[in-house]
Write a structure and sequence with these properties.
- The chain is of the alpha+beta class.
- The chain folds into 2 domains: 149 residues, no CATH class; 325 residues, no CATH class.
- The protein has a 4-stranded antiparallel sheet with strand order 2-3-1-8, with helices on both faces.
- The chain is globular and about 90 Å long.
- The N terminus is likely disordered.
- It is a multi-pass membrane protein.
- This is Anoctamin-like protein At1g73020 isoform X5.
- It is found in: Membrane.
- InterPro entries: Anoctamin, Anoctamin_TM.
Length: 562
């Protein structure tokens, strides 16, 4: 085997533990010291940073350490002959590298890190006594150390760290590089954030580029008076928009497959960061059935069919609950808003009413999303990806109603195109401005509030203090930043749910009402160009580095767009 030059290791994982004053004689039994020693014994590079209130353990893994963990996880990687084989460290030269030259992608490295740090187990013949200050507990034989410390609330959190060199490079070449408009370094985004986020930005960039054609056509229709030819030009515009949407959908599928081929990813893949909840459920069900029915294949098949149909009935029941709630609870509220909007004469009062309405529906929809998450727990989905798709369909139904019912009310009941155009302008402008404002200000406000709480706690511990408490370490600043989470919770979805939802609702608005307001495509194009850079800046500067989630497509969102 040719000897590989070891890649430069960067600290990619942070572990948060309480800050304490440790005496020399207590080091052998101190649980944090034991944890750090175990990390080093596994080949990890450890750096300890003392913050204002907490202590932070930064972890990096040499290439060999990651390679041996990947071999234990049986991770499959692409070979030069096009086959995906289980990785073996001794045959490392036989596997292809990522577009940036690294051996493992960020998703694969994160899986390896979790396998290493959560795999620390007590292999001795007796339990080990661990202490933290005055607290004492036992680390039993066969028990995992990190999970034990998390249950004892000693390890507060384990989270990914930003790589400063790569982060600053992406800030310069992506987030702050406005002159490229829709061009983005997709391979670098994939290497840094993982597959799911890279696919989102690839989709958003392609969608924005394709919007340039209908935006230019809509501007021409708005600026020039075609006179008697207007009845001919408008149908041409409508038909071209439908063809544009169909072609965009098909070309995106080709683009998606090309990206997966470039990133050496099999298609489709049913993996989920190594957890495979769906596969675990199926295997446990198989064991239970085998215990109950023995080796009778007929009864076993009947039992499997019964479980499958029960899962379908549960999905049908949950969908019925969501639809019934939309019709009985949300529809009257939306119609009441639309009617009041039509009755009010003042434009200022209409804008104020729309603003209040947009804030109110955000609250109502979050409640509906949390209810949907609870309902999905009772469905028999194959894996977490299927659960996430089911959640997307349910929550999008709520957002579809609150986004479009008022516009349909004006279009179908009153048939007043001037009022309909005003509603569309307010939705496209007020809604997009409010959402972008909230997206970029809320993380900063949360970060500032957490810093204020930490300073207040430190001052209470030290008594009256006149000096200002400074946060010197970057890892502590990252820990205080909010995570990239969805508004409906992060159990099944991350912050991409809200970003995709915003794009999908915009797409529906401009497609369904293009005939009333052709200029909507121009508004959408300008918003998306801003959205690309704003989302990039949010991920790189205002939030923690997101936990990588594996996904080879945009999932249920493609069906929603179609």
């Amino acid at each position: 085997m040719n000897v590989l030059e070891e890649e430069q290791t960067a600290f990619e994982i942070g572990v948060v533990v309480p800050k304490r004053d440790l005496k020399e004689e207590d080091k052998d039994s101190d649980c944090v010291e034991v944890l750090v020693d175990e990390f080093r014994n596994l080949g990890l590079v450890v750096e300890r940073v003392h913050g204002v209130v907490d202590e932070f353990i930064k972890l990096a893994a040499p290439l060999e350490t990651l390679g041996r963990a990947a071999a234990e996880l049986h991770i499959k990687k692409r070979t030069p002959i096009g086959m995906d084989l289980e990785f073996e460290w001794e045959e490392v030269d036989a596997f292809e590298r990522q577009p940036d030259g690294s051996l493992f992608s960020w998703c694969e490295r994160f899986r390896c890190y979790r396998h290493i740090i959560y795999g620390i187990i007590n292999k001795s013949q007796s339990s080990v006594t661990l202490r933290l200050d005055s607290k004492e507990f036992k680390w039993e034989v066969g028990e995992y150390l990190l999970q034990k410390l998390e249950s004892e609330r000693i390890v507060k959190e384990v989270f990914p760290l930003h790589d400063e060199i790569k982060r600053k490079k992406l800030l310069q070449t992506w987030a702050l590089h406005w002159w490229d408009f829709t061009n983005q370094p997709i391979d670098e985004i994939y290497s840094y954030f993982g597959t799911k986020i890279a696919i989102y930005f690839a989709f958003l960039g392609m969608y924005t580029r394709w919007l340039l054609f209908p935006a230019a056509f809509g501007l021409i229709l708005h600026m020039f008076d075609f006179g008697s030819l207007q009845l001919l030009v408008l149908p041409i515009f409508f038909i071209s928009i439908i063809l544009w949407a169909i072609m965009f959908s098909q070309f995106w599928k080709r683009k998606n497959n090309a990206l997966l081929a470039r990133w050496k990813i099999r298609y489709p893949i049913r993996a989920d960061l190594g957890y495979r909840q769906g596969m675990e459920w199926n295997s446990s069900q198989s064991i239970e059935i085998a215990k109950k029915w023995g080796t009778d294949k007929t009864k076993e098949r009947e039992m499997f069919q019964r479980i499958e149909w029960f899962g379908r009935l549960m999905r049908f029941r949950n969908d019925a609950i969501i639809i019934f709630s939309i019709i009985c609870l949300q529809l009257p509220f939306e119609l009441a808003y639309a009617h009041i909007y039509e009755v009010i004469g003042s434009d200022i009062m209409k804008i104020g009413l729309t603003t209040i309405y947009l804030f109110a529906i955000q609250f109502f929809t979050q409640i509906g999303g949390k209810i949907s998450v609870k309902l999905i727990k009772y469905e028999n989905n194959e894996n977490t990806e299927k659960k996430a798709d089911s959640l997307v369909y349910k929550v999008f139904g709520l957002y579809f109603m609150q986004s479009y019912i008022g516009v349909f009310y004006h279009a179908l009941l009153h048939r007043n195109f001037s009022t309909l155009r005003k509603v569309l302008i307010q939705r496209l402008l007020v809604s997009q401005v409010l959402e972008n404002l909230l997206e970029n200000t809320l993380p900063y406000l949360k970060y500032s509030y957490k810093k204020y709480r930490v300073r207040s706690k430190k001052k209470r511990e030290k008594g009256s203090s006149t000096g200002k408490i400074q946060f010197a370490s970057r890892v502590e600043k990252e820990y205080l930043k909010p995570s990239y989470s969805a508004s409906i919770g992060m159990e099944l979805e991350d912050g991409l749910f809200d970003d995709f939802l915003e794009v999908a609702l915009q797409f529906g608005m401009i497609m369904m009402f293009a005939c009333a307001f052709p200029l909507a495509f121009a508004f959408a194009t300008l918003n998306n160009i801003t959205e690309i850079r704003a989302d990039a800046l949010k991920l790189l500067a205002m939030l923690r580095r997101p936990t990588p989630r594996f996904s080879t497509t945009i999932g249920a969102w493609l069906n929603i767009f179609q």
